[in-house]
Amino acid sequence: MLSDTPIIQLRGVTKSIQTSTHHVEILRGIDLEIRRGEFAAIMGASGSGKSTLLGLLAGLDSPTSGSILIDGEEIAGLGEDKLAGIRSRKIGFVFQSYQLIPTLTAEENVLLPAELAGELNGAEARARSLLDTVGLSERHDHYPVQLSGGEQQRVALARAFMLHPPILLADEPTGNLDSTNGRQVLDLLEHLNQQEGATLVLVTHDRELAAHARRIVVLKDGAVVSDERRNGA
User: Rounded to the nearest 10 degrees, what angle do helices 106-117 and 149-160 cross at?
Assistant: First the structure.
């Protein structure tokens, strides 16, 4: 359920890198709040900074300056151990390239976050339930090589929701799929966003995909140039 309470808060976030010849500003003073339960799309051309921004939200990289609060916890400047703990408890991540472990079955891939967190009580039933939700109850014992691209992405979605994370970050989740499978994955993202109550932040360059979000944030040259809530959100 959508709340007025922000679950993601960014204040003055910058990201820059220094090459041997240039100082490159990737993000320039990002101020952004995303509410609990919101479905927000982050759009922008290649090089706009959208994937960098998602990586900062996931704690996979650190900002050069600024503040990032995830569910009330400041993550900017934290060490990797603490960041890993926050990711485990609060963030599910879906990649364009699925990132399944080839030697594990679909069910074992979904179970992996629970095993890494040591939260195995009821985990098998939860994994089976999620695979059923994404339409793969009959494929639980199949390995990634035995699954289509669309099926692999559905396994990745189930895995992302294994520990009931309050936030789901999706980086071009339909980028490697045809239109039919892409639509199925989008439908599942929306369904899980509503069923699980998770905040969904989707990075995409696809306007048709972004149009399904209740909010569209557009980046250009590392800055927010548009922020529009839609459908009465």
Answer: 20
Q: For residue 88, what pLDDT is reported?
A: 87
Higher-confidence position of 127 and 195: 127
57, 201 Cβ separation under 8 angstroms: yes
**Token pair listed for 24:** 């490159």
User: Which domains, and CATH codes, for the chain?
Assistant: 36-62+79-216+225-229 (3.40.50.300)
DSSP strand E in 4-125: where? 6-18, 23-35, 39-43, 65-70, 73-74, 91-94
- What gap in Å lies between CA 62 and CA 196, rounded to an integer? 28
**Whole-prediction pTM:** 0.89
Read off φ and ψ for residue 224, nearest 5 degrees.
Answer: -75, 120
Locate all alpha helices (DSSP H) within the chain, ordered by sequence: 50-57, 80-90, 106-117, 123-133, 149-160, 179-196, 207-210
CA distances for 183 relative to 153, 170, 186, angstroms? 12, 15, 5
pLDDT band at 36 (very low <50, low <70, confident <90, very high): very high
Separation of alpha carbons 145 and 114, rounded Å: 23
Give the separation between CA 118 and CA 15, rounded to whole angstroms.
34
